[in-house]
Amino acid sequence: MLCCMPGVAFVPALLVSWSSAAFIISYVIAVLAGHVEPLVPYISDTGTKPPESGVFGFMINISALLAVITMYIRYLLIEKQNESSHFVRSSCNIFSLCIGLMGCIGMGIVATFQELSVPSVHDIGALVAFGSGVVYITLQSIISYKSCPQWNTYFVCHIRMAISVISCIAFIPMIVFASQISMTKIDWTPDEK
């Protein structure tokens, strides 16, 4: 089975490295082109105007694909571990995979539909990506606890749950504040709302 093959651990590492590079490269291009201010722009703002929009879209779509592969490997790993331990229902594992895949589709939507070109589609994609991501992380944390101590340490489970809690806490103000604004441009002047 693929999940038991040595060497698949590079996929999650590649996902993190590639995604980080996507954000950093599009940020650098956007700043150098003068399209965003260097101090803490929105991620989507760094991928709105050409040429950084093309780089951002391409790299985030590759990130979505790598996330699909990573989630599928995790699914297979849990299925294989579950054969001997029976620590979680298979339906829970499948449900978690489906939620994760929805988040990847959301990432693809965010990458394809720029923030200023089609804002409603971009925002729906972001909501699906972040919302599904929070649910996926939480489900994976719960599955990790159920697999203790045979397949995980409690330390790893606590780290995963801490990331889940931080994600949930960050998601709530994102929704609240995003619903309060309707921004259709990047540049803001003090005389505007």
Main traits of this protein?
193 residues; single chain; mainly alpha; transmembrane; transmembrane helix; DRAM1 protein; DRAM/TMEM150_Autophagy_Mod; CWH43_N
Describe the structure.
With 193 residues, the protein is mainly α. It has one domain (9-185). 70% of the residues lie in helices and 0% in strands. The protein has five helices and no strands. The protein has helices spanning 10-32, 52-85, 90-112, 119-146, 154-180. Helix 3 runs antiparallel to helix 4. The relative contact order is 0.10. The model has no long low-confidence stretch (mean pLDDT 91).
Provide a short characterization of the protein structure.
This protein is mainly α and 193 residues long. The protein has helices at 10-32, 52-85, 90-112, 119-146, 154-180. 70% of the residues lie in helices and 0% in strands.
Question: What's the layout of helices and strands?
Answer:
Layout lengths: L9 H23 L19 H34 L4 H23 L6 H28 L7 H27 L13
Strand content range: under 5%
Overall mean confidence score, pLDDT:
91
**Number of discrete helical segments:** 5
Low-confidence parts: none
Number of domains: 1
SSE run? HHHHH
Mind summarizing the main beta sheet? Answer: none
Radius of gyration: 19 Å
Structural class: mainly alpha
- How many strand units? 0
**Distance N terminus to C terminus?**
56 Å
So what's the overall shape? Answer: elongated
Question: How much helix, percentage-wise, in residues?
Answer: 55-70%
